[in-house]
Q: What sequence folds into this?
């Protein structure tokens, strides 16, 4: 099995303590991941733009402990202890333990902060889980290098392997997190349309991408900043026994076939059509599952209708996508920013909760901040 490659040879926890920090971004899917099998294997391939400004900054301090009988860690968000984050991290540790055999040897202090407000309705799981996975990878790298210095022979720890394993681990925390390690276009999920694609980790989109997609902008309109109505776990489960699931999963593969020439030729009109269709399909799946959900709010629809009218009137290349919630991501090429941002401010911000929106753009992945 391919996941075996991520199980390291035995090494000793020769380092007593240390501290690592990473910042890792969120991402926005163009072809959506919705539905998963056991062990965080996606039912269909997905592709996303990595973002730049919406990110999580995580510091993990580790110190050796006496017993290896249990995991020991504490979590802080913005300096405040967050015990309600612990179950998710405990599950993550259980899933990745076989790949990171040092997890029981240390006590971990996990300190995390987001550049976007926690209650913005923006999922922090992609940036949060990828940042944590990267911190754990940096610790493993330190340990393996220390062991190698003492004469052990572990595989060379090159950047490609580091990123691939970080993506593999992040996926076990939250599926979409595996698309946040690198940028700018990342594919996750095996499909014959994309050479090298895998269900186990994200890979860089390997084909030609037209200059039209460089510096793409994503303005996120915060329509509803409340708690998620449907957790992603519940949401993905709704695809089991869903009457339209099989066709939807096939459609995602087909959409990759459609997307390839669009990305190559820079056809923005066709790009917008595919992206909006994907977003509405995701919501259609939720409306037609049992139980069923409507995650859009009246303001989501107001915004969509205004975008469509504005696009018809101006011929500008403005389009939207949605995640599993009411917020709207507005995507457009950088050279149309002035007119589109003016439209957003004049016409759309009124539909946002407290007038809140976030300006983001395509990014190139996570960054190591500290490794000591
Ligand atoms: C609608 O990655 O949050 O954003 O694997 O259960 O953590 P888990 O799910 P998650 O699902 C995200 C789904 C989506 C679409 C996407 O990002 O592809």
A:
């Amino acid at each position: 099995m391919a996941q075996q490659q991520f199980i390291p040879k035995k090494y000793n926890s020769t380092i007593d303590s240390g501290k690592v920090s990473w910042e890792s971004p969120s991402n926005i899917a163009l072809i959506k991941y919705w539905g998963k099998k056991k062990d965080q294997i996606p039912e269909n391939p997905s592709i996303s733009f990595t973002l730049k400004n919406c990110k999580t900054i995580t510091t993990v301090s580790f110190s050796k402990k006496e017993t290896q009988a249990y995991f020991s860690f504490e979590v802080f968000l913005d300096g405040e202890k967050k015990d309600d984050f612990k179950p998710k991290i405990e599950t993550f540790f259980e899933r990745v333990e076989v790949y990171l055999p040092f997890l029981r040897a240390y006590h971990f202090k996990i300190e995390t902060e987001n550049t976007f407000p926690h209650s913005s309705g923006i999922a922090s799981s992609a940036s949060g889980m990828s940042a944590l996975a990267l911190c754990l990878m940096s610790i493993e790298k330190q340990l393996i290098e220390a062991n190698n210095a003492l004469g052990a022979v572990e595989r060379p720890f090159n950047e490609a392997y580091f990123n691939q394993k970080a993506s593999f681990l992040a996926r076990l925390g939250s599926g979409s997190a595996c698309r946040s390690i690198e940028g700018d276009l990342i594919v996750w999920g095996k499909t014959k349309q994309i050479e090298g694609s895998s269900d186990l980790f994200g890979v860089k989109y390997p084909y030609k991408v037209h200059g039209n997609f460089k510096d793409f902008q994503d303005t996120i309109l915060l329509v509803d900043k409340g708690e998620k109505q449907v957790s992603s776990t519940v949401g993905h489960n709704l695809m089991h026994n869903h009457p339209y699931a099989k066709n939807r999963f096939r459609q995602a593969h087909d959409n990759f076939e459609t997307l390839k020439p669009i990305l190559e030729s820079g056809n923005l009109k066709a790009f917008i059509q595919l992206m909006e269709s994907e977003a509405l399909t995701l919501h259609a799946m939720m409306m037609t599952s049992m139980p069923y959900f409507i995650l859009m709010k009246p303001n989501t629809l107001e915004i969509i209708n205004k975008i469509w009218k504005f696009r018809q009137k101006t011929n500008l290349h403005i389009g939207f996508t949605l995640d599993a919630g009411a917020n709207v991501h507005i995507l457009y090429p950088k050279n149309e920013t002035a007119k589109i941002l003016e439209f957003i401010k004049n016409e759309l911000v009124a539909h946002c909760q407290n007038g809140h929106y976030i300006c983001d753009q395509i990014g190139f992945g996570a960054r190591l901040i500290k490794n000591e």
Q: What stands out?
A: The chain has eight helices and 14 strands. The two ends are 34 Å apart (CA to CA). The chain has a mean pLDDT of 95.
